[in-house]
Specification:
heterodimer, A: 1108 residues, mainly alpha, 57 helices, 67% helix, 1% strand, B: 213 residues, alpha+beta, GMP Synthetase, Chain A, domain 3, three-stranded mixed beta sheet, 6 helices, 4 strands, 10% strand, elongated, Piso0_005267 protein (chain B), MIP18 (chain B)
């Protein structure tokens, strides 16, 4: 080989190139070298040709071909400016002369292509274009060459077209030559790569060249060009496995579609040809045909569309008229779904109907521009008139659909179609009140009556179908300016009063049984209210009044009105009514003024009725309905004040109304949560306007409520309000609540006593409010005592308090205080050491435990919890101190330790925000929690391995404590954390299944189910134990010390595990247990609980099927 | 009334079928009733773990334990409330069986109806014989598949009901031309047993039962 830097002899390079043969990598190197030499002028072109001379004139075909290849590849490697005009010309002439040499044709083409790409290629110089095109047209026969040879002529034409297509429009002879050449090389092509170029060239020619200048010749040429593309339709292609060109069937389809739709002159044949292909039964083909038609209707020029509309209409109308159109629903937003092309697969047999309607819609839009649409509509309507004369005509809906689609693209068509449909002969006779039955008509009287009078089913269909016209109106007016004339004077506006009257009458005269009719009327009435500028305020009021009447008549007549489909329809309608962009504020106000009072009346407490279960049931149903209607802030705002008034009434009544109170407050909580989840808003104003009055009525109730549920929901509501109040306001809010807490009155509200003096269940309310306060706020400024004194006063109450609920409240308060309000100066280490020492007695073997000891321990655990959630070092240290000593646990600790674990792991409202559905930041900027996300995972990974180790060495009694502890932890751990530890826990779980402690069983079964779902392979070695333990739990009655161990829940869970086992473990392992389990489960069929019996049935059924 | 002829059967929507009445279920609560119980479960003082040493041995002690599979062992423990097998439960079991020729369920075709199911059960003892009587309504009076449907229902119920239940399947009066013949066939033990040994027939029945919910 020649060394770098030396000037190699070109002849040597050529010889080496020839010698390298098929090794493309190596041969490329030589070409590269030659290119480099020429590019850098190290070798003149003359020297280059001279060196190449002997090879390209060689007697041997192979050598010649190789020489030409070397030349062509070198040329293609040169930069586009390297060759001068003269050089290009010389090479071009030379290559033209070589075209007759068949053995190196492909390389000659390649060389020519490279020259055309060169910047100095001059179109028309020395007749170059003429020469190459003439050669291709007259002497080149595509059929006698391979696809890779044919590829170059396509590329030469493509390159010519891309580089300077206007050149061909300069003279008609060259234009004709170009087109003829194209037709010649494209005829009979089959290779996908070449076809892509062929279709693209077809488009380029038709879009850029003035074919009409060719005079009479042009028709024949257009026809031929049409033939070289349409003959492939519908194109189907499966790329080979090692597809080198990455051309997909879809690419080909799209390119072909573009080609067919690029020339209006194709219309002569294309529509008829396409419609003929539409007779195919294959939905993929049909969809392809219709997509191509759609594109053609969009692209062909106006005159063509006008000329062929009838062909299209006649060809397509039956696609709709003779089909099942039930999938088009007038309750939808649009007639044709917006994204139908991408959302529905081409194999879907209903998709052609969507395309058909799209085409007709586009067609009417195009025709409007030709100013001939009016006449055309007359023809179409005449054709459909028969179908529309009776509501129950089998093509009624189809015809309405067709007209609605045509109307939705043109204002004049819309007007024309509406006045046609509302004529007395057609729908007018039902809808218009200005038309009376003409009794003197010559027709048979019964027919007349029947024709004018609609039965329920017909009325329902009619109203349903009117919906399509409304959709049409909506589509038509979508982009219109709100002052547009059309909105105020169109034919649908003209018939507005008739429509309203008809709908109202239909609603009023429908009997209570005719629910679907009522639903349809409400649906379409709603549609009218949502049409832009269609109904005025009074008419909207009319709608609401009608809905109101229907709603309350259902409430009065149907005990289960909440399940009534009419009520459900009303709810969805009102939701849309209040959230639609059309007049949103006005609509909400209207609902609040017209509908809400009636609903609130249902909530009015009546001392006579309150105790009846029916009243309570109705009360809850009403709340659910109001909850459903609360879709935005505007509604919620009013609702809060109205409900607050009711709360005042409830709080004055006896304790039996606590339920009403708590449900109503819970309603507000739900509504806030729902509205904040969909669109966040600030509740600043609520703190001033709502909270003081609310506290006034709720403190007394919460204090008196023995179930404590009122306090819980009151706390929830306050915490939402605080969390959504601006961060700046939080210090003041905190001050207010601390004052209230310590017995001072704030804003006219007071608790009468300090919660630090007397244990009170109200502590839970304050815990929730303090938990929602931003963590940057200073608590200690508000209390005026040192943290030590404050903690002391809380712990004192914990010792003294007899009420469990309140005591835990104070413990939580302690935990929360330590978590986020202790000042930086507070020495956590000393404090923890002190309280840990107090509990140390519990760890000594001979301890007797007093109540104080237990409370000491509780204080320790809750303090640790407060630190642990923020993964504080001291907290983690004491957490380990408590758990590390597992080996030292004494009998007395058996009941305390598992509960401690529960407290460590459980999610508490004070350390967790209720999630909004969207993962946005809270709008108020409040960061109320001082909790690390992964704290559970961290402490889980510390403690669980220790528990497992200890279990293996512990005695029987402590083993049980381990299992109970584990169950407590498992209860509170999300599956995601648990998954990676399943293999470690498995042995403990297996032994837990034979336990007789319901707590253990509960945890074990939940985890077993998780194991079986997530890692069924782990279970395979233990199938025998698992099946026998699980069936034992499921079918036997296990009674220990006169209490039932396997309660219905445990039996159900055991069965669920069994079901999972047979579902997810490989059948080859489980088949052995089939017969046994099948037999044993027969006893489960007699279980006292229905859900257990049902699950037994289901498992047995799947076991029966197992063999098949 | 003339014979009902359902050559073009009326198909009921699934939502129209009878379901266990809502009254049996508790109303959805606005407030989670477990809120307070959850709080209380965190208390260490919940059980008297302190001061008094627990007297008896621990809960695991075997002498106190009884596992029983049948009723003769009478123990005094918290008795669970019994939910009886009733007509609705039977209906739920068989309503979702597929019709052998339509792609619909028996309930959608109104072949089985809640009113035509009768359960006779002596609630006092779980050892006595109980009986289920089901009358099926063929979609047409000459329905040749009535026996197959009956057999499907029988197989389903035999798999799903405790063995003490006797299953009696009949054609509803005046709904089939060969009512008596079919009734005999459906309740003849020997013939049912023979049919169940026919693999092909069992295959068809499996197909019918595969939609059971």
């Amino acid at each position: 080989m020649t060394g770098v830097g030396e000037n190699p002899d070109i002849g040597t390079l050529v010889s080496q190139f020839i010698a390298s043969g098929d090794d493309k990598e190596v041969s490329k190197e030589y070409v590269k070298k030659a290119t480099g030499l020429v590019e850098n002028n190290d070798l003149t072109l003359l020297e280059f040709i001279r060196g190449l001379g002997p090879t390209i004139t060689s007697e041997s075909d192979m050598t010649r071909a190789a020489g030409m290849q070397f030349l062509a590849e070198t040329l293609s490697g040169l930069s586009s400016t390297r060759l001068s005009k003269q050089d290009v010309n010389v090479f071009f002439e030379f290559l033209l002369s070589k075209l007759d040499d068949k053995s190196c044709l492909i390389h000659t083409f390649h060389g020519i292509l490279s020259l055309i790409k060169s910047k100095n290629f001059i179109f028309g110089m020395n007749g170059n274009i003429q020469s190459i095109l003439s050669y291709l047209l007259d002497k080149y026969n595509p059929r006698s060459h391979l696809a890779k040879v044919r590829y170059f002529p396509f590329n030469i034409l493509k390159e010519l077209a891309e580089k300077n297509i206007t050149y061909f429009s300069t003279a008609s002879d060259i234009l004709e030559l170009f087109i003829k050449t194209f037709i010649h090389i494209a005829s009979g092509e089959k290779d996908p790569r070449n076809l892509m170029i062929s279709f693209n060239l077809n488009v380029a020619i038709n879009q850029n060249l003035p074919l009409t200048t060719l005079g009479p010749e042009s028709d024949a040429l257009i026809r031929d060009m049409y033939d070289v593309c349409f003959c492939y339709f519908p194109i189907s292609f499966t790329p080979p496995a090692n597809d080198p060109y990455k051309i997909s069937a879809e690419d080909l389809k799209l390119a072909l579609r573009e080609a067919i739709s690029c020339q209006s002159g194709y219309a002569k044949d294309s529509f008829n040809d396409l419609l003929e292909k539409l007779t195919s039964t294959n939905p993929v083909v049909r969809n392809d045909v219709l997509k191509t038609m759609l594109l053609s209707v969009e692209r062909y020029n106006d005159d063509t569309i006008l000329e062929y509309w009838e062909t299209i209409w006649n060809g397509l109308k039956y696609e709709i008229l003779h089909n099942d159109v039930s999938l088009f629903k007038s309750s939808h937003e649009t007639i044709i779904p917006d994204n139908y092309d991408s959302a529905i697969d081409d194999t879907d047999e209903f998709k052609p109907m969507m395309f058909t309607l799209s085409i007709l819609g586009v067609l009417s839009g195009r025709l409007e521009k030709t100013h001939n649409l009016d006449n055309i509509i007359v023809m179409i309507t005449q054709e459909l008139e028969e179908n529309l004369s009776k509501v129950d005509h089998k093509h009624f809906k189809q015809s309405i659909l067709l007209l609605s689609v045509i109307a939705s693209n043109s204002q004049s068509a819309f007007n024309q179609i509406i006045s046609f449909l509302f004529s007395p002969k057609l729908l007018g006779k039902y809808i218009r009140s200005d038309i009376t039955i003409d009794n003197n008509a010559s027709e048979n009287e019964i027919d007349v009556a029947e024709a004018y009078d609609l039965n329920t089913a017909k009325k329902r269909d009619l109203i349903d179908n009117l919906g399509f016209l409304f959709i049409s109106y909506k589509t038509l007016t979508k982009g219109l300016d709100s002052s547009s004339d059309f909105l105020f004077s169109n034919n649908l506006v003209m018939y507005k009063d008739h429509l309203l009257l008809f709908l109202c009458q239909s609603l009023q005269t429908a009997s209570n049984m005719e629910r679907t009719l009522k639903c349809k009327v409400i649906q379409q009435f709603l549609s009218l209210t949502l049409l832009p500028k269609y109904l005025n305020k009074e008419e909207n009021t009319l709608f609401l009044n009608q809905v109101n009447d229907v709603l309350f008549s259902v409430v009065a007549h149907n005990e289960n009105w909440n399940d009534d489909i009419v009520v459900k329809e009303i709810v969805t309608s009102l939701q849309k009514f209040m959230t639609n962009d059309v007049n949103l504020m006005g609509n909400v106000t209207m609902v609040v003024e017209l509908l809400l009072p009636g609903l609130l009346d249902l909530l009015t407490p009546d001392s006579q009725l309150i105790s009846s279960p029916k009243y309570m049931a109705n009360f809850k149903k009403t709340l659910t309905l109001i909850n459903d209607l609360c879709v935005n802030y505007q509604f919620l705002e009013v609702l809060s004040i109205r409900i607050l008034n009711k709360l005042g009434l409830y709080s004055e009544l006896s304790s039996s109304t606590f339920d009403l109170f708590q449900d109503s407050v819970a309603l507000l909580v739900n509504c806030i949560k729902k509205v904040e989840s969909s669109k966040q808003f600030l509740l600043n104003s609520w703190y001033k306007s709502f909270v003081p009055r609310f506290l006034n009525v709720s403190i007394g109730v919460s204090d008196a409520d023995q179930s404590h549920l009122c306090g819980e929901v009151v706390g929830d509501l306050l915490s939402w309000i605080i969390r959504f109040s601006e961060k700046d306001k939080h210090q003041n809010i905190l001050k207010d609540f601390v004052d209230l807490f310590s017995g001072k009155s704030a804003d006219g509200v007071s608790v009468n006593y300090s919660l630090l003096d007397k244990a009170s269940p109200l502590i839970s309310i304050f815990n929730k409010t303090f938990a929602s306060i931003d963590r940057s706020c200073d608590f200690n400024v508000c209390i005026n005592v040192s943290p030590e004194v404050y903690i002391d006063s809380i712990t004192k109450i914990c010792y003294a308090c007899d009420d469990e609920y309140s005591r835990i409240g104070y413990l939580q308060h302690l935990s929360l205080y330590i978590n986020k309000f202790i000042p930086a100066s507070f020495d956590v280490g000393t404090y923890m050491e002190k309280i840990f020492k107090r509990s140390e007695t519990l760890f000594s073997p001979s301890a007797t435990v007093s109540k104080n000891d237990v409370v000491n321990f509780e204080i320790l655990i809750w303090s640790i919890k407060g630190l642990l959630v923020k993964l504080d070092k001291t907290g983690l240290q004491y957490f380990e101190n408590v758990t590390v000593s597992i080996g030292n646990w004494q009998k007395t600790m058996r009941h305390l330790i598992p509960k401690a674990f529960k407290i460590f792991f459980v999610d508490l409202p004070i350390f967790k925000n209720e999630p909004l559905s969207s993962k946005q930041k809270v709008i108020s900027g409040v960061q109320n929690l001082n909790v690390r996300l992964l704290y559970k995972q961290k402490i889980f990974e510390i403690v669980v391995p220790k528990l497992i180790d200890y279990y293996l060495t512990a005695d029987e009694e402590m083993k049980e404590t381990c299992l109970v502890s584990l169950s407590m932890i498992l209860e509170c751990i999300p599956n995601a954390i648990l998954k990676s530890h399943l293999p470690d826990i498995l042995p403990l779980i297996l032994s837990s299944l034979s336990s007789h402690n319901p707590v253990i069983l509960n945890g074990a079964l939940t985890t077993t189910e998780l194991i079986l779902k997530e890692a069924p392979k782990l279970a395979v070695p233990h199938l025998s134990t698992l099946t026998s333990n699980l069936t034992n739990l499921a079918i036997n009655k296990i009674v220990v010390r006169k209490t039932l161990v396997n309660t219905a829940d445990i039996r159900f869970q055991a069965l669920k595990c069994l079901q999972c086992l047979f579902d997810s473990v490989d059948q080859q392992h489980t088949i052995a247990y089939r017969t046994d389990v099948l037999k044993k489960l027969a006893r489960g069929l007699e279980d006292p609980k229905r859900n257990v019996r049902k699950l037994s049935c289901d498992i047995r059924q799947s076991l029966y099927e197992m063999n098949n | 009334m003339s014979d009902p002829i359902n050559a073009n059967p009326v198909v009921l929507d699934v939502s129209q079928l009878p379901t266990r009445s809502k009254k049996d279920q508790t109303e959805a609560d606005f407030v989670d009733q477990n809120l307070v119980r959850n709080v209380l479960s965190l208390s260490f003082l919940e059980r008297k773990h302190y001061e008094e040493e627990e007297s008896a041995g621990d809960s695991g002690s075997d002498s106190d334990m009884q596992i029983s599979g049948d009723e003769s062992v009478c123990v005094d423990y918290f008795e669970e409330e019994e939910e009886e097998i009733d007509a609705q439960e039977i209906f739920d079991l068989i309503s979702s069986i597929s019709d052998p020729e339509h792609p619909l369920t028996l309930a959608q075709l109104a072949v089985v109806n809640l009113n035509d199911i009768e359960v006779k059960n002596d609630t006092r003892s779980k050892n006595s014989i109980a009986e289920v009587l089901i009358k099926i309504t063929p979609t047409i009076t000459h329905c040749s598949l009535a026996t197959l449907i009956g057999l499907g229902i029988r197989v389903r119920l035999e798999r799903c009901l405790p063995p003490r239940y006797r299953i009696n399947i009949r054609i509803k009066e005046n709904t089939h031309q060969s009512e008596n013949q079919i009734n005999k066939q459906l309740n003849d033990k020997e013939r049912v047993a023979a049919a169940c040994e026919n693999d092909q027939l069992l295959g068809v029945i499996s197909q019918m039962l595969s939609t059971c919910k």
